[in-house]
Model the fold of this input.
Amino acid sequence: MRIDLHTHSAASDGTDSPAELVRAAAESGLDVVALTDHDTTAGWEQALDAAPRGLTVVRGMEMSCEGRGEDGSPVPVHLLAYLFDPEDSAFAEERARLLAERTARIRAMAERIAVDYPQFDPDAIMAATGTAAGRPHLARALVDIGVVTSIAQAFEGPLSTRSPYYVDKVDTPIERAVEMISAAGGVSVVAHVRARMRGRILDLNQVRELAGRRPDGSAGLGGLEVFHADHAPEDIRPLAELAEELDLVVTGSSDYHGDNKTLSLGEHTTDVEQYERLLAQSSGLTV
Ligand code: AMP
Ligand code: ZN
Ligand code: FE
Ligand code: FE
Done:
């Protein structure tokens, strides 16, 4: 069984439609693929409808959260959420708030960029973002008008956190996100826990705090994404050991974004025993 539990479609900042993504997943030999767009479930229906026979589509999302960094200051953390009830009202409200933050933030950045580059059209960019706007949408537009020659260069320059065009957004505190996902019957997994190249990373003591049962008896954090292209080889074993110690599910994924990143579906995968443990923890949707 080949299982890839983290991918993005054009419902957020990937480039394949959800239907194209599930067809590509089957063609690349996957048996299971999770669709985990940023802060939205908008691609679920199309992905399920288009899933070729023999491919299981897991309904997921990658939630924008704020955690505690190794130096004690806040850091952005991505939290994968699987098989939660999309109708749960508290969680649905928080997703709507996150999407509104994304839209306002990307528009604000686009307007700042347009002051220096009049050929950069904020309205056209916002019209092309799908449900969840993100910096990759700005990156593509910057490549198109020739300000930079690649998406990577856009992230190093005009879209970096140090750029005058950069605007922040307000993400969900990770402890609150874990609670909401559990309350909606889902399972939470910290994405790319040691992706150091993205900047400061999460304090692993916070992972310890999030794991295990919460005081009200609800489930805490469900797993850690260990196998990921942004992880250095030396980070894998300590992460796997921490997951074992805390009884967390260990996942692996491609974090596929279509043409917005040079990653292939199934580049990293999840073991079937770990996938089954994840399914067993869900009290929300089934696959
Ligand atoms: P945002 O969520 O709008 O802040 O944008 C972050 C998104 O951009 C994440 O999905 C990252 O995977 C993606 N990203 C970050 N750095 C790069 C890069 N160098 N090349 C392509 N995508 C990137
Ligand atoms: Zn992304
Ligand atoms: Fe991520
Ligand atoms: Fe991702």
User: Anything to note?
Assistant: The chain has a mean pLDDT of 96.
